[in-house]
Design brief:
There is one protein chain. By secondary structure, the chain is mainly α. It has one helix spanning 2-37. The protein has one helix and no strands.
């Protein structure tokens, strides 16, 4: 049971990390891309 909870916590934290990385990456891409478009 404890192992399952730890496994779930690791999965959730990795998913959060991935989502945060994607969001930050897209925001940076938008911020750096807009001056080039203009």
């Amino acid at each position: 049971m404890i192992m399952l909870v730890r496994r779930l916590a690791i999965d959730v934290s990795s998913l959060l990390l991935m989502t945060t990385t994607v969001v930050v990456g897209s925001i940076l891409a938008i911020l750096t891309g807009f001056p080039a478009l203009l």
